Amino acid sequence: MRSAEDLFTELNALDESVQIEAKKASEIGKSVLQTVCAFANEPGLGGGYLLLGADWTRNEKGDMVYWPAGLEDPDKIQRDLASQCAGMFNVVLRPEMQVESVDGKPVLVVFVPEADVTRKPVYFQKTGLPTGAYRRIGSADHRCADEDLWVLRGETQPQSGPDMATVLDATREDFDPQAILEYRRLRANLNPNAEELAYGDDDLLEALGALRRANGELKPTVAGIVLFGKSIALRRLMPALRIDYIRVNGTQWIEDPNERFAATLDVRKPLLLALRQLQSTILDDLPRGFRLDAGELQSRQEPILPEKVIREALANATMHRSYQINSPVQIIRYSNRIEVLNPGYSLKPVADLGTPGSRLRNPAIAAVLHDLYWAETKGSGIRTMRRLATQAGLPLPEFSSSREQNEFKAILFLHNLLTEEDHRWLKSLGGGALSAEEAKILVYARETGAVDNTACRDFSGLDTLTASGVLRRLRDRGLLIKQGSGSRTYYTLQDQLIVLDLHPEQACLPLCEDGDRPLRPEEPVSADKGCNLDHATLPPELATLLAEHRGRLDQKTLRQLMIRLCAWRPLTGEQLATLLNKKRDYLRNKHLIPMVSEGQLKLRYPESAKHPHQAYVAPETAQENRHE
């Protein structure tokens, strides 16, 4: 059991920790018990520590500082916690506890061991499942949803999942014969003696989980429609089930509705046919390099990004996505990277990606892709992607997961992390020599807009504490700005460093009224930076529309107006509040957050929810609806 002094040291180095929770705890309230429940449930965490009798504040640098505040009656806190852990949950929990003195103050260290999988999920008896159970995600405790229960129960439950549910309005006729033939062809190429190849089509589909018996009749499952469904059936049964390939000029999302994308491809096919088409499209669109192997006389051209990395990214997005969310998978090809976004947060903590073991949301779909070698087995796909990217001389892929937005993102980089131009830019910064890790972090922040501890660990190989120390050192040198706090902490470049990186055509851009740096063309004007937006700056049709809708508006009309405005250009919450004459907090909580969740609007910087220049944009569907 770790000491209180050791726990304080780690908290002050990291701000917050996935395995440590500091609380004042003058009494044992619900918050303490939720953390106990989360530590007992979280798979692979090995339990966690509660540090009771702590206090904290934020210093002038923006860091959280923790110190012992003490407990008035630590023995009573121990008794109360032991009693409630024994009676509040569906199982009896026995945390380890010890009272220590730190700086003359009594604090209570509580270690909650991870419960055995046969006892999970642990939940509050009065509340029941799923909302009475909690998981530890990052440094926060989250209520469980149905999907979390599959993870907590582990291998003690039958191998089934949401993709094994039958689709009521589907029939056997909704399957595409070409997709079934494709499965047989691919499987025979890999294993001509595979037993299931001798089955008739219905027996084969039932064995794969694509058909399931209900009331004596074979009915298609979600997995069956996804893997084998005809295009017309997919449109009828799952209208948002498609994969979009979007080619964007430059390194930023294009906001001009008249010049949004260089090219787009919307694929609505059974997955077994769609994956091959998408892989070919991405490979054909990639820059190629020359390779001459030892002993060979003739060089050959190969895509700069290994084909296996693309296969794994596509497989990961389609077999781990949530098919209960009406949103497509998006593959966005920028000049320097590919972003793959799929609905559904990762059931496995991002920090554990690449470690052995899978958390399968859709086991039937995953099994088929594994059988066809589209995906690695036992959770090794992420590790394979990282290994192949390293061999190709590319930065490691970056992965992020958001429970709030219910979305997972993989970023595949297409250039060497430190190019000659990068070295020139780094040299222009001055201020002393930079270590290799510091240089990579700064270039990464310039390329993607932000950098956090997880990304740092991914491309540098540093551990959590060391990465945090490097980021703080760059902040203290005036090169990075800290944004957010706790598990949401990330860093952006100082404004003057971005000015050094302006393109030549931006040299004549005017400054904001407060003398701030020039705005890039793709950057939203910030209302709180002196660059105010009013009706006079709007296109005539939008100005007229706003004039016609003054006063109190119903929800539908107000949201339609917001979509129209954000289809014109990215707008911050402050700007929308000004234009619509609404309070910013009301607009954000009642409309913007739900609209982003429902896909009616998108974040300008989805990878950094707290980005200092965050704004809202209309998705492509909203743009199309605007012209109907």
Adjacency order of strands in the biggest sheet: 12-11-15-16-18-17
Helicity range: 25-40%
Largest β-sheet summary: 6 strands, mixed
CATH topology title of the largest domain:
Heat Shock Protein 90
What is the structural class?
alpha+beta
Give the class-level CATH name of the largest domain.
Alpha Beta
Instruction: Kindly give the count of domains.
Output: 5
Key words describing this protein structure:
globular; 628 residues; six-stranded mixed beta sheet; 5 domains; four-stranded mixed beta sheet
Brief digest:
The chain is of the alpha+beta class and 628 residues long. The chain has 22 helices and 22 strands. The strands form eight sheets. The chain has a six-stranded mixed beta sheet with strand order 12-11-15-16-18-17. A four-stranded mixed beta sheet has the order 1-2-6-5, sandwiched between helices.
Explain what you see.
The structure is a single chain. The protein is α+β, with helices and mostly antiparallel strands. The protein folds into five domains: 4-155, Schlafen, AAA domain (Methyltransferase, Cobalt-precorrin-4 Transmethylase, Domain 2); 162-237, no CATH class; 243-291 and 300-413, Heat Shock Protein 90; 420-500, Arc Repressor Mutant, subunit A (Orthogonal Bundle); 517-626, Orthogonal Bundle (Arc Repressor Mutant, subunit A). 36% of the residues lie in helices and 17% in strands. The protein contains 22 helices and 22 strands. Strands 12-11-15-16-18-17 form a six-stranded mixed beta sheet. Strands 1-2-6-5 form a four-stranded mixed beta sheet, with helices on both faces. The longest helix is centred in the N-terminal third of the chain and has 14 residues, at 74-87. The radius of gyration is 27 Å and the shape is globular. It starts with a helix and ends with a helix.
